[in-house]
Amino acid sequence: MDDLALARHLAAEAGRILMDLRAARTHEGNALGCEGDARANAFLMAQIAQHRPDDGVLSEETADTPARLGKSRVWIIDPLDGTREYGEGRADWAVHVGLAIDGKAVLGAVALPGDDLVLDSGGVGVLPAMAAVPRLLVSRSRPAHEAVEVARAIGGELLPMGSAGAKAMAVVRGQAEIYLHSGGQYEWDNCAPVAVAAGAGLHVSRIDGAPLVYNNADTWLPDVLICRPEWADRVLEEVARIGD
């Protein structure tokens, strides 16, 4: 099984584990999220160890070690992105399985189990038509200041949504044009989504236009921009103006 097929398989199967657990109704709310995180992570870690034993791994749910820093190939995974949404019975959560090679998110898969969908970096063909009014995805509870200001500047509409993966995939799916997040994330929050978005032909970068670099000792990533290429220059200009 090649890397992309493996990423897709792992994301899909972890998603199935999470959906089965939620359907069983043995856990609720926060307890459901914690159990789901643990089960999906155990599956993903075991599978990567079996199929790619020489690669490094960085997971939100496994204690990090310096061992991955000396690896060229590192799997960066989020077993359950959007724990709150998952526990609430919503669909806007995801499973991320990404592969970074020499610091670049080269491939990945994002499962949206609530929508019975897996998207991967193999591409989606022609991107859907854009809306006349640009739609910007923001957090349900704390919209990023820059996103609010950019939306105002370009006449955009704010769309609240759950997990980072769900928001990024909404741009891939043509449900929005721009995902601009400046509230801070970790590498597992966006490695796989960035790979999928790039594979679809979208613009991906930091909000100052710098490239996204993975497998760092410090896994904190302050910001990310995933958007239709037609909007990239304008959004980056507006973000720079906000910072002046």
Automatic annotation (TrEMBL):
Which InterPro entries does the record cross-reference, listed alphabetically?
Answer: CysQ/Inositol_MonoPase, Inositol_monophosphatase-like
Q: Which domain of life is it from?
A: Bacteria
Class in the EC hierarchy, top level: hydrolase
Q: What is its EC number?
A: 3.1.3.7
Ranges in a coiled coil:
none
Task: Tell me which Pfam families the record gives.
Answer: Inositol_P
Determine if Secreted is one of this entry's keywords: no
For this UniProt entry, the molecular function terms from Gene Ontology, in alphabetical order, are: 3'(2'),5'-bisphosphate nucleotidase activity
Keywords per UniProt: Hydrolase
Could you tell me which PANTHER family the record lists for this protein? 3'(2'),5'-BISPHOSPHATE NUCLEOTIDASE 1 (PTHR43028:SF5)
Q: What is this protein called?
A: 3'(2'), 5'-bisphosphate nucleotidase
In the record, what lineage is assigned to the organism producing the protein? Answer: Bacteria, Pseudomonadati, Pseudomonadota, Alphaproteobacteria, Sphingomonadales
